[in-house]
Structure formats: structure tokens, C-alpha cells
Design a protein that fits this description.
- There is one protein chain.
- The protein is an all-alpha fold and 277 residues long.
- The protein folds into two domains: 1-53, no CATH class; 63-276, MetI-like (MetI-like fold).
- The chain is built from eleven helices and no strands.
- Helix 4 crosses helix 6, helix 7 (167-174) packs antiparallel against helix 8 (179-208) and helix 8 (179-208) packs antiparallel against helix 11 (237-276).
- The longest helix is centred in the last third of the chain and has 40 residues, at 237-276.
- The chain is globular.
- The chain starts with a helix and ends with a helix.
- InterPro entries: Bact_Polyamine_Transport, MetI-like, MetI-like_sf.
- One of its GO terms (cellular component) is plasma membrane.
- Pfam families: BPD_transp_1.
Length: 277
């Protein structure tokens, strides 16, 4: 085959990949664009749309029940992140530093709540809280969320600890650092990005959770459960407005993760290369 033929094949393959990537991009993000347009549409459809309006956003901020559900999701997400970060980080140290019989099985059992279908976890937790006479409330929702956000943080932090290895701790101890100083000045800065990444991912999953929340919700509803209840009586344009706000929040979190965690990871790699040199 001639050189020009091979070059043509490469370009044709590159064009095909670009088209494929563009189609995937459209498939993923076109629905988000439609939601964004709908949130500013003066009518309930975008066909025959004339101008833009903030009507649905005004109605959104006047709907106290919807706002309460939104803030309930924020509160549950923050509380779940705090609890799961503490428990998950401690559990990650336990799994990576302590050897005991059945460690692999224990690790699998820890990850089980995150891997099980939400309907199984929700039903199991509902039976549990009912059996000990705990009323459905914010506490039961938080209990359900912590059950699957803790493995997320634990997996992120334990992966970083395994990649880091024990050499840095040994070096700190050789220089006279006590266990607390080793953790605070050596280990914690090196796993900080994993902790933050796990916490942000846990918050995102908690905020979006509906199946487990649906089983454990009483009168104290989170936003996904409230929106699900709204959809049974028809689709309100206020849903588009709240979806756009959540989309913007997600973009802010993603930008933070990309800039902060990426920059911290690059700094860590540069330091590691300089020490190796």
C-alpha cells in the first residue's frame, strides 16, 4: 500500500472518530440543552417560543415546598458527606494498614451497600428502622445515604493509600516524627485530594438519590422524591428551572474538582519526580 493510501486511511479513521465523538457528545448533552431552553420558555413548549422569561424561576422561588425539599437535599448531602468522610477515611486506613483473616471478604462486604440495587437497600433499611420503631424522618434518610456514601469515600482513600505505599511514613519516622506528626504533615497532604474527591462524589450521589430516599421518607422529603411526586400530576416548568440550577451547581463542583484536584495531583507528581531524581 502506498504512503498516500495509508495517510488517507488514517485521516478517514480520524474523521470517523470525530463524528462518533460528536454524536456521543450530542446524545449526552442535548437533553441538558433542552432543559435549559425550557426553563426560559414563556410557554410549556419550545415550539412557537417567542422571547425568554424568568417566570418559572420566580414561581420556583415562591414555591416554599419545593424550596424546602431542595434545602433538605442540601442538608442531607452535607451531613452524609461529613459522616461518610470521617468513617470512610478511618475505614480506609484500617483496610490498608491492618492485616487480618478474611480481609478480602470484609472489603467486599463494605462495598456491598454501594453495589446493591437501590430498591434492595431501601427495602432492607425500611424493614430495619421499622423493626426498632424509628419513625421515618431526616435521620432515616441520612442513615440510608451514609450506608452507600461511606464506601465511596473508603474506596477513594484506600486506593490512594495503596498507591502511596509506606516509604514516606518510614522516612518521616526515621527523621524523628511521631505517629501524629507523620499523619498530619506527610500522609494527610498526600491523600487530601482523594478525600476531597470522594467527598464531592459522595455529595453528588447523595443529592441525586431517589430510590432509597423514597423508602425512608416520611413527611420530610428530599428534592428527587418531591419532584417524583410532582411528575405524577403532570410536568411543571418549575422542574426545568430547578434542574437548571442543579446543573449549574454541578458545573461549579466539576470545575472545582478539575482545577483543584488536578493541580494538586500534578504538584504531587512533580514532587515525586524531583525526589526520584
Amino acid at each position: 500500500m502506498s504512503k498516500s493510501g495509508r495517510t488517507g486511511d488514517i485521516y478517514s479513521k480520524g474523521t470517523g472518530l470525530k463524528i462518533y465523538g460528536a454524536l456521543v457528545f450530542v446524545f449526552l448533552y442535548f437533553p441538558l440543552l433542552i432543559v435549559l431552553i425550557f426553563s426560559f420558555s414563556p410557554t410549556r413548549t419550545i415550539f412557537g417560543m417567542e422571547g425568554l422569561t424568568l417566570k418559572w424561576y420566580r414561581e420556583l422561588f415562591q414555591d416554599q415546598q419545593l424550596l424546602n425539599a431542595f434545602f433538605h437535599s442540601i442538608i442531607v448531602g452535607i451531613c452524609a458527606v461529613i459522616i461518610s468522610t470521617v468513617i470512610g477515611t478511618a475505614g480506609a486506613f484500617f483496610l490498608t494498614k491492618v492485616n487480618f483473616p478474611g480481609k478480602g471478604l470484609f472489603r467486599a462486604l463494605v462495598m456491598l451497600p454501594f453495589l446493591l440495587p437501590g430498591i434492595i437497600m431501601g427495602l432492607t433499611l425500611l424493614i430495619f428502622v421499622r423493626s426498632i420503631n424509628i419513625p421515618l424522618s431526616m435521620f432515616t434518610i441520612l442513615l440510608g445515604h451514609v450506608s452507600f456514601t461511606t464506601p465511596i469515600v473508603m474506596f477513594q482513600v484506600s486506593s490512594r493509600l495503596l498507591r502511596m505505599g509506606p516509604n514516606y511514613q518510614y522516612a518521616a519516622q526515621d527523621l524523628g516524627a511521631n505517629p501524629f506528626q507523620t499523619f498530619w504533615y506527610v500522609t494527610l497532604p498526600m491523600i487530601r485530594t482523594a478525600i476531597i474527591g470522594g467527598a464531592l462524589l459522595a455529595f453528588t450521589v447523595s443529592f441525586d438519590e431517589i430510590v432509597i430516599s423514597y423508602f425512608l421518607t416520611g413527611t420530610w422529603m428530599t428534592l428527587p422524591v418531591f419532584i417524583y411526586g410532582m411528575l405524577r400530576f403532570g410536568l411543571s416548568p418549575k422542574v426545568y428551572a430547578i434542574s437548571t440550577i442543579i446543573l449549574l451547581m454541578s458545573l461549579v463542583l466539576i470545575s472545582f474538582m478539575a482545577r483543584y484536584i488536578g493541580r494538586s495531583g500534578e504538584t504531587y507528581r512533580v514532587k515525586k519526580r524531583s525526589k526520584g531524581a
